[in-house]
Specification:
Length: 132
Amino acid sequence: MKNVYVNDFTRSVKAYYEELRQFKVLSREEERALIIKAKNNNTAARQELVQCNLRFVFEIAKRYTGHGVAIEDLIAEGNLGLFKAIEKFDLGQEIRFATYAIHWIKFYIKDLIKNHYATRVLEVSEEVLNSN
């Protein structure tokens, strides 16, 4: 699979990427403080935690382009994985949030791609059956 760079994307995806650059990378302490607040239903903390990790989701999603799924859909699905990671993250772990979140983000993206292929196979199968 070829490497994909931001220059290969549509104008809207490029604009989205540029927007993400405004959010800072969190330190371990900032991250943990936001996770504690987010787990206590602080929506502002949750929003900041998500915003500061959206660029991370983008970087992971762009690795999965070329599988017949639009980058926008890969990013959206990766964002769902990020939300799940916030929900499931155990503060007792001695790992950074991004290290934990990468597994959820990839899971959601890979699941989308798998479902896309399964749907495509069904469509092709129906076309073949209907053509006879």
